[in-house]
Amino acid sequence: MPASPYLLAAALVPQTHAEFVHALRERLQDGARALTYFGEKLADGTVELTALLQDATGLSVLRGHAPADAQVPALTVQFPQLHIFEREIHEQTGLAMPGHPWLKPVRSPVAPMGSYPFFQMEGKEVHEVAVGPIHAGVIEPGHFRFMCLGEQVHHLEIQLGFQHRGIEELVVQRPLAHAVTLVETIAGDTSVGHTWAFCRALEALAGVEVPVEVEIVRGIALELERVAMHLTGLSGIATDIGFLQGGTTWGRLRTTLINLSMQLCGSRFGRGWLRPGGVRFGVHSEDAQRLPTVLGQFQRDMNTITALFQTSLSVAGRLHEVGTVTADQAKELGLVGMAARASGLDLDMRIALPGAAFERLPVALSKQLTGDCWARAGLRIDEIARSIAWIQRALAVPGIDQVPLQPLGALPPDALAIGICEGWRGETIHALQTDGQGKLRHFKAQDPSLRNWFGLAHALRGNEISDFPICNKSFDLSYCGNDL
Amino acid sequence: MIVASLLLHGLGLALLPFLLPGVINRVKAWWGGRRGAPFLQPLWDTSRLLGKQPVYSVTTTAVFRLAPLVVLATTLVASLLAPMLPGGGLLPFANDFVAFAYVLGLGRMFLTLAALDTGSPFEGMGAAREATFSVFAEPALFLVLGTLALGSGHGTFAELMRPHGWQALLVTPLCALGLFLLLQIECARLPIDDPTTHLELTMIHEVLILDHSGADLAMMQYAASLKLTLYAGVLAALVNPIRVDDQPLLSALVSLVLMLTIAVIVGLFESLLARLRMRWIPQFAMAVAVVGFVALLLATTQPELG
């Protein structure tokens, strides 16, 4: 399979669940990485398991069928990167997964808070601090429980699910033409990232090949979103450590960037820009001429505030060696995207699976080695500069002003299509499965937050409880992207 | 003279605790590229709070309701002892600076008790932090004040502010530095505490008053601002070159300007520095104690040198 960020698999022959688990274990042992692993409960009660793996040869899919009463051994103990997938499969399909150390609900909308099995710690000086789900400030709901010894956190347990909307089911129920507006709201801060992954999956399914100019416009949308959200993160980190100038300046610069999105597509968050089959707005030539100046001014201000931030001893003292995740830990936990790159992993889907846009205009890998809050801030700064440079090059590509939307054809029956997009947080993965009549039967959306939340919990171990806000902000994960 | 002092003191109490935080906020706004709130915004906030009815959690007891009164009362009593605008405390007696420190200590005790009374884990953490850091700050305060007492003969707080002899040239700047750093600890300013944060897990002072509302909150906030005013006032009195006995009015005016300058400096610190890691605050307080100790050494070795 070439390095395409999508995959179409028609008429997959499912293995038995024993063969499936055996094959999955072998592939992971050989060094493959699981991108996603999910289950669907079919009409006859059978659970259809699908795993998407990536290794040196590219993407590949494993498919297995398990009877409703089957015992499918969990692989989490051997491969911790699967832990959240197996929890999710158990929750969504009811499949028994013996051997999983902790089948805690991922986003169960039914069980009341009091019945969740939280970790317990014993000891005279142990105390628990519970925060949320209602927080001070305008942020999403999530419950955090800290098990502390004095100021030190031994373990943080994160309970999400308060924003569960049933998006996966809603997308299947809606007419396909209207599904994309729902997809844009899976995580409001990753509208472009999710929509592009969805478009890639649907276009692969419908057999539509979009021209490179369309992909370039989508790339501009994606990189504008990346820069804007990285600025939000930097502004938040600076505010949380009391570094006033960073907080206000990055906040102001973010407005410049989202206003650019507004001018190009009518929405500051890139909504309504990407559609299956193309984009609704190209980049007009007058915009393409004006934007480089604006972006140049932006980068000048950015450099000034970045220099202040990175040379301030008080900032360095606050962020170094706080919330550290080592490369080994990141790999073992299956962290993705920004969090993985801050810990030194080479994990960027724009490089591994570039697609037309990033093949035409490659982007260099941004990476940090220390895996602490300083690294996650520094990574954002590097990525902003590279994204701005990419947008500058993309604006010079001819033909991006006239980009007609292509109609989608009929979908093939019994086919699985997967689309991947490296959003600002990390790899966003959408899977579409059609039934025998070529109608959409199952939709699986995966925000990078799903895998990275446990990284945050891990980062906080042994740190001080007062370091939680900057650790949280440096990961900047999505609650609704996890809750779906 | 007494009437004039009382009038001046009353005016100071009515205005400065609102003006100084207003100045700090305005400095921060300027550095942040904003125009900022009016200088007396804290006063309007207080009057708004006074019009609101307090809400009490059912887990709290009388301690929680009593605390704002005690905190306010102790800070007001401390204001009578501190050499503020008029140059001398209104109720001077020998070694009254000890009373100043422990009257404020009583207020702190009730502040933390009320926090514990709410049963909230945040407030419990905040109370633990407040108590722990004050353990480190107290020796520093007494090293600074004790050095001044040595230099000026054991007298009243106001006399402490008039170190004489050549050692004053060395001791005064060191003690002023110590007092300024103590102000940052005791009055919960950056880099120790961030008064504007909304993050409960990182708060020290703000978390202690999280459950207070209405007039209770107004009292707590006023008391905290008054404490800031007192520290700024003591610091201003120490560095004020005009002796209050010579030119009382000019001295008060210079003190006022110095206090506003201190507020600007506090604002500059808050605009240009990030906050310290919580773990480093005891070290910060101990560094202040070292400053006080060096000043003490200088003050005590002076007779031999001379």
Descriptive notes:
The complex is a heterodimer of chains A (484) and B (306). Chain A has helices at residues 17-29, 83-93, 167-173, 176-183, 191-206, 212-240, 244-265, 285-311, 313-319, 327-333, 337-342, 349-352, 355-360, 373-395, 449-459, 468-475, 479-483; strands at residues 6-10, 15-16, 33-41, 47-55, 58-66, 126-131, 143-149, 152-159, 274-275, 278-279, 415-422, 427-434, 440-446. With 484 residues, chain A is of the alpha+beta class. In chain A, the strands form 4 sheets. Chain A has a 4-stranded antiparallel β-sheet. In chain A, helix 3 (167-173) packs antiparallel against helix 4, helix 6 packs antiparallel against helix 16 (468-475) and helix 8 (285-311) runs antiparallel to helix 14. Chain B has one domain. Chain B has helices at residues 2-31, 41-50, 62-81, 96-117, 121-152, 157-160, 168-186, 205-208, 214-239, 248-272, 281-305. The longest helix of chain B has 32 residues, at 121-152. The interface between A and B is medium-sized, with 32 and 31 residues.
List the keywords.
heterodimer; A: 484 residues; alpha+beta; Cytochrome-c3 Hydrogenase, chain B; 2 domains; 4-stranded antiparallel sheet; 4-stranded mixed sheet; 17 helices; 43% helix; globular; B: 306 residues; mainly alpha; 11 helices; 71% helix
Q: Could you give the topology of this structure?
A:
The complex is a heterodimer of chains A (484) and B (306).
Chain A lengths: L5 E5 L4 E2 H13 L3 E9 L5 E9 L2 E9 L16 H11 L32 E6 L11 E7 L2 E8 L7 H7 L2 H8 L7 H16 L5 H29 L3 H22 L8 E2 L2 E2 L5 H27 L1 H7 L7 H7 L3 H6 L6 H4 L2 H6 L12 H23 L19 E8 L4 E8 L5 E7 L2 H11 L8 H8 L3 H5 L1
Parallel strand pairs in A: 2-5
Antiparallel strand pairs in A: 1-11, 3-4, 4-5, 6-7, 7-8, 9-10, 11-12, 12-13
Helix pairs in contact in A: 3-4, 5-6, 6-7, 6-14, 6-16, 7-8, 8-14, 14-16
Chain B lengths: L1 H30 L9 H10 L11 H20 L14 H22 L3 H32 L4 H4 L7 H19 L18 H4 L5 H26 L8 H25 L8 H25 L1
